What we know:
It is built from nine helices and 16 strands. The protein is α/β, with parallel strands linked by helices. The strands form four sheets. An eight-stranded mixed β-sheet has the order 4-1-5-6-7-8-11-12, sandwiched between helices. It has a four-stranded parallel β-sheet with strand order 13-14-15-16. Strands 2-3 form a two-stranded antiparallel ribbon. Helix 3 runs parallel beside helix 8 (about 300-310). Keywords: Hydrolase.
Amino acid sequence: MDLPKLAIAALGGTVSMKARHISEGVIPMVNGEALLASVPELKTLARVNVETLGMLPSASVDFEFLLSVLSWASFQIKQGAAGVVITQGTDALEEVATFFDHLWHHDQPLVLTGAMRSAAQAGADGPANLLDACRVALAASSRQRGVQVVIHGQIHQASAVRKTDSLALQAFSSPNVGPAGLLVEDSVCYLRPPSPRKVLPLPHQTGHRIALLEASLSADTRILENISGLGYAGLVIAGFGAGHVSESWARTIEFIAQHIPVIVATRTGSGSTARATYGFDGSEIDLVRKGALMAGFVCPRKTRILLWLLVGCERQDELADFLKQD
């Protein structure tokens, strides 16, 4: 039987980490070929092309690098790959998945995975996660689902997945909606059908910056007041509760919103911003009146990525439509 083609890119992260010496912390050292060797069963599932595109902790990944990885992944699909798998660090996994999902226009799946235990630890979870991710990437039922995160036997939509624990093995979940599917006895089992997606073109400008600030108790406005003067092209606020800020922040946001897009999300980690419940100064009704947009269910970090991409495409006027879609 002719096996399907599968492409794997290694970017670094905990899944690739070992310590040079016992007394030292782990660093990226394990390349894509070594990761592939840890899951020999893959040879029975697909003809695999693996490349090491980076050896970075995910906190050091930037948008320019991700665009180059996306170009590589698209080329693999054009060369006949049934799907693409990317291994990387878990710290920024939800953000990278969201970035790719807004730009991935292929029917074939793009699947991200990583590990919570380094390659040298007892019970390292990287090989099992990689094998599961490859099974998902090869499954016919994974088509037209965009970008997904596969980790610890669960399949998560890029738009929903969050890292909700710093060190635990079960560090990922999808608040509000739950996982999109599961790996059951090595089979890919989806719990719901694919949902409609609105994909953006590649940004033609990448030098702009989007600020992200979190509202907190008794916070002053000094940084907020200087956002426009610092040259930012947009601002995301991680607001209290259902999308609220203090009275002083609300007054400053009104001025900023006259010059750049301002979006208010919730910092809580789950749930949506409100739209028409609270009416005090700094509430969602007040902020919308002052020119801000509410992010709905989109978390602050993913909102920042969306705004960066829209500004890069000069389509920031569509922002409300994208937030409504989510």
